[in-house]
Amino acid sequence: MADVAVMQPKSMMRPKVWDEEVEEAYRFQLAGYRDAIEYKQVKNTEHIDRWPHNGYVKKLQRRDGCFYYYNKTRECPDKEIHKTKVYSY
């Protein structure tokens, strides 16, 4: 029926310290998505707006059509790190 394979994560972990992978996950989860893979599947796009100098996500469209705009610097506060989920495929 559908020839597009839906990728599902094999495992999930909660990080203890901040790094760029945690920042990436935090930005997608704040917008209502699991990660970049789910965002690309739902929005049917390969393009994600990113800041050119560091590669952080710049803008995401939420499921309701509104947009989240992110700063060039770190957005994930220390108190939110343990709430973020990092998925493995």
From TrEMBL:
Coiled coil: none annotated. GO terms for cellular component: nucleus. InterPro entries: Meiosis-expressed_gene_1. The lineage of its organism: Eukaryota, Metazoa, Spiralia, Lophotrochozoa, Mollusca. It holds the Pfam family Meiosis_expr. Belongs to the MEIG1 family. This is Meiosis expressed gene 1 protein homolog.
